[in-house]
Amino acid sequence: MEDAVTLKPKEYASTQEVKWCPGCGDYAVLKAVQMALSQLNIPKEKVTFVSGIGCSSRFPYYMGSYGFHSIHGRAPGIATGVKIANPDLSVWIASGDGDSLAIGGNHFIHAIRRNIDINLLLFNNQIYGLTKGQYSPTSELGKVTKSSPHGTVEEPFSPGELSIGSRSRFFARVVDTDVKMMIEVMKEAEQHRGFSVIEILQNCLIFNDKTHAEVTNKETKADNQLLLEHGKPMLFGADNNKGLRLNGLDLEVVTLGENGISEEDILVHDAENPNPSLQFMLSNLKSPLALGVIRKVKDTTYDQALHDQREEEKQKSKFKSLDDLYLSGNTFTVN
Amino acid sequence: METKTDVESVIIKFAGDSGDGMQLAGSLFTSTTANIGNQLATFPDFPSEIRAPHGTVAGVSGFQIHFGTSGVYSPGDEPDVLIAMNPAALKANWTHLKPACTIIVDVDSFSPKAIAKAGFEGNPLEDDSLADYKVIEAPITSLTKSSIADLGLDNKSVVRCKNMFALGMVFWLYNEPLEQTINFFNKKFSSKPLIAEANITVMKTGHNFAETIEALPSSTTIAPAKKAPGTYRNMTGNQATAWGLLAAAKKANRDLFLGTYPITPATDILHELTKHKWSGVKIFQAEDEIAGICSAIGASFAGDLAVTTTSGPGMALKTEAIGLAIMTELPLVIVNVQRGGPSTGLPTKTEQSDLNQALFGRNGDSPLVVLSASTPSSCFEMAIEASRIAVEHMTPVILLTESYIANGSEPWKVKLIDELEEIHPNTADDLESWSPYSRDEKTLARKWVIPGTPGFEHRIGGLEKEDVTGNVSYLPENHANMIQLRDDKVAKVVDDIPLQRVKGEKANRLLVVGWGGQFGILFGAVSGLQKEGKDIAFTHFNYLHPLPKNTREVFSNHDRIVVCELNNGQFADHLQSQFPEFKFERYNKIQGLPFKIKELQKKFNELLEEK
Ligand code: SF4
């Protein structure tokens, strides 16, 4: 029997003073990560956090694990190198909507496509915090910010749509107000082999306060949140009597007991269905907003495939050493 | 058959349309020549378009080989024998014809239309413009067709064999055996024996044709070169770079990681390494240049010997990440196979114009080590040197090679792994004395820690580091101190590199200075003048930053110093700023072409004679 020492959540913290604004949603995420790692009992030397630039990218400094605070948008590149070099590590990326979806968009979609075994926490506060309040690629159309005093004239990205469009195998959405949900989803992401994107609706109380309020407010959340669970019907609402059904090619909100609707008419969530059509619609649904693991499909990971290919070549190759290679083919000898 | 053996060396150039298979003919000839034991140097010269318009000068692909018993330091200036498969190939070499050289043309290709397309006013074979040359009009296309007519191949496959006719002729000219090429085809087309047979038959037909026609000069045997005993093989610079990296990883006892994005002319390093996954090399073809280098930085952080390969435009994209590697003091090898710039520039042409970019092309005060390779085979040693310095001194190292030596080839004396020096990565072992940025007293290198090691958990990043702890620090004094420390660390590499050498120590009139891949040509040019008794010396730099310890001393013994480089004077500027007491004259060539021995000697003679 292994007698691994279980670390307490706070033992995953570094000694650095946390410098996010008081009340920032990032604190809750940090706490949830430390709880999730503790519950999964992963030794902290096996954990590596990589980040880009932005408020959330300070994350690695606050973890007592290995960490790399890199450059803007490039965390997936760095993390990919870490994982390929050392596949035993549990590799995480902390990134924001600007970092992942603007300057790092290319790396984001390709990391998803390759399905390398890394977890990406996408702190989506729909604003640039670190540079003090410019609109981001997830800011809604018309948003007034310091760099868009007359409102933006561009459509935002939907992170779920972009991820699933990039052939994501794991996409989840959580809110920073629900630590319990975050812990569960993070654990699931870590245990899933492949690239896992967790979109965190995070509140930036300084530059974009309450942007997610409708889904997070105590008073309104029951009617605005759809908590997805694999294998369970998609029911929500204060009385848990509203549900989703398929009407043609669209999702429709219906109420149990009205117009002869019964639980049998309600869609059952299948996160593991390789066909992403329904998950795609769920990720784009505005009201209610789907939370939890939207898509989770088993597939070969990039790191594993690379490893297997090397092993196969080792078996097949006529070369057993570099000397074999250097002396192979056309050589000539001078005496 | 009459044979001569008094020829020291010969230059042959195969030139044809980019679809004519000139690179294959050239490399097969090289292979056999290498096996005979000749000295040799090659230079392929391709058009930048994959399939430039057929029959145009822009679409001409060339392969030059210089081989001989002695005196082969470079692929040479103009060819002694030019094979021109079409009028465009003749036109492309029109201004570089050596007096009285032999020109073999495929006379079948000289139709009025093709002649016009190549930009000739009239048929150059019919006017007297080629009167001073030995022109052999060979009906290459028609004889190729008739020799394999009974094999029943389609026309395209038949015409594709005509490069073998030319190769057969050249084999006869230099009395070289056909066996190796026959074996090559039998092996390559073992599943298509008809194609193998066609190629072999056409080659033999060319060989017989050369023997039969009287117009050709007699067959010449080039005696093998006197070389140090050992096993040799022909290598291009890119292949040598790849093999050097494999060797370095082995000697450093680390896995090799390559994170890269395809770019001409560096991609062959990727092609070569990816064949050797059996050795454990981890290859990541990234989505772009930035992800290429970032993945290498991540792999380095995780403990691999990490490399990224690129060319100038790719370097430009990598600069921010290079700064990150400097700040995080991680080992990283960055290979830049230079091509003509700026911007997309001349992708398939050679140049040495990324030196300033390598030395200075980053934000902030950001020193790193810059090395260069001087010949195709020296890419092997310099790739090992770059790796050694990176992991022993914990710094990114840029290795500059260039298209000319990356695609060029020469015999490489095989070095077995046991013959190579060990590499000692600066790995953290003692937790008690360790901090993320504590340094080795001698080298100032910080320790390399492999994530996964308990107790050593730490965080690094691009924000300024506090001395010793590596924590983020914005303190003014700390920043000044760290800038100095990073600079001193790179400067200290000087204690760990060889001294600069001079060829012709007694000369004191003129010192020729070179760097990078123009070594062979410069060496040949200076050697020639030294043989004539001229007061000239030569020094060639492989270590560009920091410069070897005795550099000042080397410069202090000559009346005049001339720096020769394929750019607008970047190395001369670099030297001038460090050694203001000397005057560095310049000889620059910026045409996307290598130097020529003749033009160098002309310049050196002028400098020697001037008062
Ligand atoms: S600016 Fe916004 S996102 Fe950044 S730390 Fe402050 S509250 Fe958090």
Question: Can you describe this structure?
Answer:
The complex is a heterodimer of chains A (335) and B (611). With 335 residues, chain A is an alpha/beta fold. Chain A has a domain at 9-211 and 300-304: Thiamin diphosphate (ThDP)-binding fold, Pyr/PP domains (Rossmann fold, 3-Layer(aba) Sandwich), CATH 3.40.50. Chain A has 11 helices and 14 strands. Chain A has helices at 26-40, 75-85, 97-103, 105-114, 159-165, 179-191, 213-216, 218-224, 277-284, 302-316, 322-326; strands at 47-51, 66-69, 90-96, 119-124, 127-128, 134-135, 170-175, 196-201, 225-227, 235-236, 242-247, 250-255, 289-296, 332-334. Chain A has an 8-stranded mixed beta sheet with strand order 2-1-3-4-8-7-13-9, sandwiched between helices. In chain A, strand 5 and strand 6 (134-135) form a beta hairpin. In chain A, helix 1 packs across helix 6, helix 3 packs across helix 4 (105-114) and helix 5 packs antiparallel against helix 9 (277-284). Chain A is globular. Chain A starts with 25 loop residues before the first helix and ends with a strand. Chain B is α/β, with parallel strands linked by helices and 611 residues long. Chain B has 3 domains: 9-212, Pyruvate-ferredoxin Oxidoreductase, domain 3, CATH 3.40.920.10; 232-419, Thiamin diphosphate (ThDP)-binding fold, Pyr/PP domains (Rossmann fold, 3-Layer(aba) Sandwich), CATH 3.40.50; 510-609, Rossmann fold, CATH 3.40.50. Chain B has helices at residues 22-36, 87-92, 112-117, 140-147, 155-159, 162-173, 179-188, 193-212, 237-252, 267-274, 289-301, 312-327, 355-360, 378-393, 403-407, 476-491, 519-531, 551-555, 570-578, 597-609; strands spanning 9-17, 39-45, 60-68, 81-84, 102-106, 134-138, 230-236, 256-260, 282-285, 305-310, 332-338, 369-372, 396-402, 409-413, 459-461, 510-515, 536-541, 543-545, 560-565, 584-588. In chain B, the strands form 4 sheets. A 7-stranded mixed beta sheet of chain B has the order 9-8-10-11-13-12-18, sandwiched between helices. In chain B, helix 2 (87-92) links the parallel strand 4 (81-84) and strand 5 (102-106). Chain B is globular and about 80 Å long. Mean pLDDT of chain B is 94; it is low at 1-5. Chains A and B meet through strand 1, strand 2, helix 2, helix 4 and helix 10 of A and helix 1, strand 7, helix 9, strand 9 and helix 11 of B.
